[in-house]
Design a protein that fits this description.
With about 350 residues, this protein is mainly alpha-helical. The chain contains 12 helices and 2 strands, in the order H-H-E-E-H-H-H-H-H-H-H-H-H-H. The protein has one domain: Arp2/3 complex 21 kDa subunit ARPC3 (Orthogonal Bundle).
């Protein structure tokens, strides 16, 4: 559900840049008051895990579409909403700048759609009341499926509103909604299954991480599996991602008859696209030679060196960025506490 710049005008894109930036600043301020620096390593490793997991598009049977993990609800359950928002924003920023996944103008919208709704709406109002202390598998399952689907559906609805506000007439509101909501409901159910599986593992490995108590140091029995999972998913499993268009592209194709809209980019959009092109050293998670040098159908092998490098490099970049942000906040918290 990563939006491209073609779906937005600069006014709407800029407004959501401002909204997401404000939420990031507020999140950083709130994290300072938590004074729970033990969560910084968990921010880093879970952020890297979500980056790797988002590379895997899974096929939605019978639709010709695919979906991928959003990660917001999972991060909120493990980190709390403020750290989760910072972590997922870091993931989306790395994807946009260095892998050209989502437009630079659309980055604010993508952060808002994929992070705000699961973290600040679905998690506190759906997941927490249903999950309780997360000790009941039935309640945890209901919370995981309910929270994940709600977060995805709200994000999908927001995409439609943003295109409407941008005046994208090729995507009429009612018809776009008709395709966007059911396909993202299906994607949300798969995400709910992943959230339930991961949280069930954490509940058995180190249940104190899921409690509200501060100062819970992350044990190796949690960190090591997350690290191994990140390396395996990003470096190998990503080879076998579905080649079908994602839910947004599929919905656009059903409504307009094409996955990409015909539009003439204005000055701001074209300049941002130029900047993104220069920064993205692995666009679409592959080497440029792989993109341009192989004809479709030339090889049946899903193995791509560029995909593996993208998965590992991106995961490491997210790990470093989120750990760095957490460390800076921690240092400022200590400095503030001594003054």
């Amino acid at each position: 559900m990563h939006m491209s710049d073609a779906l937005l005008n600069p006014v709407v894109g800029g407004a959501f840049w401002a909204a997401s930036g404000t939420l990031l600043a507020l999140s950083a301020r709130k994290v300072k008051t938590e004074a729970d620096s033990f969560k910084t390593p968990l921010m880093a490793i879970t952020g890297a895990f979500v980056f790797a997991a988002q590379m895997i598009n899974f096929t939605i049977p019978g639709t010709g579409s695919s979906g991928h993990l959003g990660g917001g609800l999972l991060l909120a359950a493990l980190l709390g909403p403020w750290r989760a928002f910072i972590t997922l924003a870091s993931v989306l920023t790395i994807q946009c700048l260095f892998f050209a996944d989502g437009g630079l103008l659309a980055l604010g919208c993508n952060i808002f759609n994929l992070a705000f709704f699961p973290v600040f709406v679905a998690y506190p109002f759906i997941f927490k009341p249903l999950a309780g202390d997360m000790k009941s598998p039935v309640r945890l399952a209901l919370a995981s499926f309910g929270g994940a689907t709600a977060g995805l559906l709200l994000g999908a609805f927001s995409v439609v509103l943003e295109t409407l506000l941008s005046g994208i007439t090729e995507l009429p509101f009612s018809t776009f909604i008709l395709f966007m909501m059911p396909i993202h409901l299906a994607i949300g159910l798969v995400e709910g299954l992943v959230v339930f599986g991961v949280l069930s593992f954490v509940q058995k490995a180190q249940p104190s991480l899921l409690s509200a108590a501060a100062g819970q140091r992350v044990g190796r029995n949690v960190m090591v599996p997350f690290l191994i999972g990140t390396l395996l998913v990003g470096g190998m499993v990503s080879w076998f991602a579905s080649s079908h268009p994602d839910g947004l592209e599929w919905s656009m194709a059903k409504v307009s008859g094409k996955e990409e809209l015909d539009s003439k980019p204005g000055f701001i959009t074209s300049r941002l696209a130029f900047i993104q092109q220069k920064l993205a050293f692995l666009p679409d998670y592959s080497f440029k030679a792989e993109e341009n040098g192989t004809e479709p159908g030339e090889s049946n092998s899903p193995i791509s060196v560029g995909t593996s490098v993208s998965g590992l490099a991106g995961s490491l970049m997210v790990l470093a960025l989120t750990f760095g942000i957490g460390y800076i906040i921690r240092r400022k918290t200590k400095t503030h506490g001594h003054t």
